[in-house]
Gcp-like domain-containing protein (Parasynechococcus marenigrum), 201 residues
Amino acid sequence: MTVSPLLLALHSCTERFGVAVQDPETDQGRPRVMGFDDGRGLSNSLIERVSTLLPSGRWGELKGLAVATGPGGFTGTRLSVVMARTLSQQLGCPLLGVSSFALMAERLAPDEQPFWITQPLPRRGVVAGRYRVGAAVVEELEAPHLLEADRIVSPAIEAAVDVDADVEALLGRLRQALQQGEPLPWQPVLPIYPTSPVGPV
């Protein structure tokens, strides 16, 4: 019998913070998911919320981490990415970063492909990413970015985040990546904030 590794996924690209854990010591390793509507208060509650599902004393046992990289609010997205990068670096643990648009692509995929996911930003324009969904594979053909003011993309569907579902999907992607032996270094995992350049954190 194969023992499931201890894995953690974080999603803070919206006002709702999602945490998913695969823990071999509970529920036969089946994922546990919780969402917290902390909004901007997440800066004060992040560690507490993660500890609700996985006590900090066990973080050293982690065999893999995953984080949603955005697009999303600058502070919220950056918080979970910084936490995930720090844990990955300190623990020597693989880290997978996936855009929140790529996570929702499988749920939202239309019949016509490839397709765009778009999200209007008040007074700033439209953020869009381009995707193709195949058999158990989501390809991000263009990462989320701010479109030029006069550019129209098609076919397009509007972003619809479901944090609880998406953070569980993120955990599944991490599990699959580890099974396939992907190296998953922490250095390339950066937050996507399309209206402001983001350098290394």
